[in-house]
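Structure in, sequence out. Go:
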């Protein structure tokens, strides 16, 4: 971690307290699965929100996105009982691989408590007098609910996945593992570029020559891969398995990508031409100059 000892300690204490609060709710509040895990997830989020407000830095929440899904997967794996062991083991392993990689990426490049994601300040500023509510619901609780929805296919695998490991599972493995690989390569290329870039420069090589946001493409692929595992385990429950990945896609394509592109257009000379040439999300061969982009 890039922060000093006190800052690192604050992060560790915050997440230890959050997990403790979640565990208390999970094992003492009498709710049926998966609502017991949802209640625990919300309780843990509220603890992180308290630390965010105390330190006036909502980036306390940044690691939450990747810390909680592996713990949910492990809990549901232990509680699963009759789940098909190959599918349950593979899904749990892939979620942990994704979570460890993404959390490590955050920890290595975390800027300390002196740094906060610029989007959080923008959300609070736009909310005006309702900034605290925007912080609670928009920055903390909404992403928690969205990620939980994206994790429901993992619950389906553990609770309903008694059928044999099949072709759709194999496709899900390829999609999920490939997505993790793409996101990893994109992050490594971005960090290598950032270490040597000049002011106003932006990455246009590697995966970033074919997609303006290949890291987002990899992230979305992970959630769609989990959805495929859910369909393989419980096809009759598609109506609550698909919305998680669909909501993730809507968030990235309708909010995150336009917001990032708008900021880059304002701050980076040449980005407009890059935006015309390169696909927004799906890696595709660069377009010839003058051809209108489709995203």
């Amino acid at each position: 971690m890039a922060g000093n000892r006190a800052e690192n300690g604050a992060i560790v204490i915050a997440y230890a307290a959050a997990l403790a609060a979640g565990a208390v709710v999970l094992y003492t509040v009498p709710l049926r699965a998966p609502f017991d895990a949802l209640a625990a997830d919300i309780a843990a989020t509220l603890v992180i929100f308290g630390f965010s407000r105390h330190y006036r830095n909502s980036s306390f929440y940044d690691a939450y996105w990747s810390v909680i899904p592996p713990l949910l997967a492990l809990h549901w794996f232990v509680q699963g009982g009759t789940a098909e062991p190959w599918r349950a083991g593979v899904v749990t392993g892939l979620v942990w691989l994704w979570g460890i990689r993404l959390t490590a990426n955050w920890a290595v490049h975390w800027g300390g408590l002196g740094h906060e994601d610029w989007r959080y300040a923008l959300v609070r500023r736009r909310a005006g007098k309702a900034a605290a509510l925007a912080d609670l619901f928009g920055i903390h609780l909404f992403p928690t609910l969205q990620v939980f929805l994206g994790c429901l296919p993992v619950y389906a695998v553990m609770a309903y996945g008694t059928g044999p490991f099949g072709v759709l599972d194999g496709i899900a493995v390829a999609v999920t593992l490939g997505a993790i690989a793409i996101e990893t390569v994109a992050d490594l290329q971005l960090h290598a570029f950032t270490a040597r870039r000049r002011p106003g420069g932006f990455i246009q090589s590697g995966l970033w020559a074919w997609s303006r946001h290949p890291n987002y493409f990899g992230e979305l692929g992970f959630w769609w891969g989990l959805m495929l595992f859910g369909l393989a385990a419980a096809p009759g429950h598609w109506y609550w398995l698909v919305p998680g990945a669909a909501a993730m896609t809507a968030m990235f394509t309708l909010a995150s990508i336009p917001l990032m592109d708008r900021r880059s257009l304002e701050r980076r000379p040449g980005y407009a031409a890059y935006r015309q040439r390169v696909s927004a999300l799906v890696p595709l061969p660069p377009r010839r100059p003058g051809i209108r982009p489709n995203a």
